[in-house]
Amino acid sequence: MFCFVPFMHSHVDTTATNRVCCAGQWYKKYDLQEWDSKDYQDIRTSLMSDDTEWRRECIECKNKEESGAQSLRQHYNDVYDQFDKPELNIVTGTNFDAPISYDLSMTNLCNLSCRMCGPHSSSQLQKESIKHPELWPEYADDLHKDYNKRYDLDKMLDNAESLFEVKFRGGEPTLQPETRAILERLIEVGNINLNILLTTNGTNANNTFFKLLTQFKNVHIQFSIDAYGKGHDYIRGPASDFKTIWSNVKKIRELNWAGNVDFEINQTVQTLNIFDFWRLRQEVSLQYDWCRFRNFIVYDPHIHSPRFMPDQWKDIAVAKAKEAGAYEDEKHIFNMLNKYNHNNDVMQALRGNIELMDMSRKQHLKDYYPLVNDLFEAHE
Q1: pLDDT of amino acid 63
Q2: Whole-model pTM above 0.85?
Q3: CATH, domain 100-304, list 1.20.1260.10, 3.20.10.10, 3.20.20.70, 3.40.1390.20
Q4: DSSP character for 343?
Q5: Please, are residues 171 and 122 in contact by the beta-carbon 8 Å criterion?
Q6: In the β-sheet with 18-19, what is the strand arrangement from edge to edge?
Q7: Of 2, 105, 153, 291, whose CB has the highest number of CB atoms within 10 Å?
Q8: Which residues are CB-neighbours of 53 under 8 A, at least 6 positions away?
Q9: Could you report the per-residue pLDDT of 328-350, keeping only the tens digit for each?
């Protein structure tokens, strides 16, 4: 199955490890630290084909395409067409001899502690998990891991003039000095026309950071918001304040931007919000009609994914969406739900995680998501 991603793009995670992309399940056995490594060459060879066979790492893109949502593979294949289908090279990717697109999760520095996240992407969750290791048993061996290893920015910025795209992701990139260093270098070499994508939790509208960002000509900002109102703060942690975030979206839009800028609300659909997640899209369309909207089902940690809910829960979620006139807009989410069977072990693990985290944070599920609470009690 042809995919342009490994020929032009590199994803860097919070351990300074290279992966092909953020969507694929790229297992640790691959050595992708060097752009011309043998593993990279083997992956490129397998993804040059036009056959219909999918690599096992690419299951997320496969599922998205089958549900009717656009996958990362389709997005970058569109970029390939926009570039007039440049000559592909197994060793160097393209004639640039280096990645021209980066997806960067530089460190886990973050001011929020989202329930469906993990210590690898949130310094706040890492601190909470060290205090309460029972919250994240799958990270038991990694709780004290250094998620702030310095990635070799110099190697990346040596090619700063040729970069087509840089994506800044979490932790929270607006708080990270590495993000500012990259923006400053791009301005220094005059590459202000590349595509910049910033994923932010919306809590920080810092003037110093955004003075840099507003100098770029093609900026796409994704605000990670998971529910409308207090349900968002329950999911995102005690430091989250929905009213401030909702206000910051408008404040950032009204800055003096040098070129094209567009805004998008990104929503993570999970078991907690599955029965009313569609309300956020409705509120965005009413209040921020200039802002695009996108949502997707959480895959990892899998205990938070609504894919494994009992069938009757899925039926209730569909009924609620239809009752609110939201089903057609969210059909891609419900199509994804129906691809998986109920897993009782996953549901029990989720309930245990919620109860432990509620005790840690002095919260209670029933105060934020009463229907989920009632269904869990009935599920006993």
Answers
A1: 85
A2: yes
A3: 3.20.20.70
A4: -
A5: yes
A6: 18-19, 9-12, 101-104, 165-168, 195-200, 218-224, 260-269, 292-297
A7: 105
A8: 1
A9: 999 999 998 888 899 999 999 99
